[in-house]
Write a structure and sequence with these properties.
Length: 61
């Protein structure tokens, strides 16, 4: 009885599946957050200003 209980506690079968599930959920959440940030008007304006300044520095300096 004790050895069976000990075997159940130390058995790690299926752990990799759970780790993949957690990693997939984290990646999906991060992707959703990034998508939400990049589609916001404030972030788009910031990116556009950075690109304009870079081109002004390269071509009109």
């Amino acid at each position: 009885m004790v050895s069976k209980f000990q075997e159940l506690l130390t058995n790690e079968e299926g752990m990799t599946t759970a780790e993949y599930a957690v990693g997939t959920m984290a990646a999906a959440g991060l992707g959703g957050l990034l998508l939400k940030m990049l589609t916001s008007a404030d972030v788009q304006d910031l990116i556009w200003k950075i690109i304009q300044q870079a081109f002004n520095f390269l071509f009109f300096n």
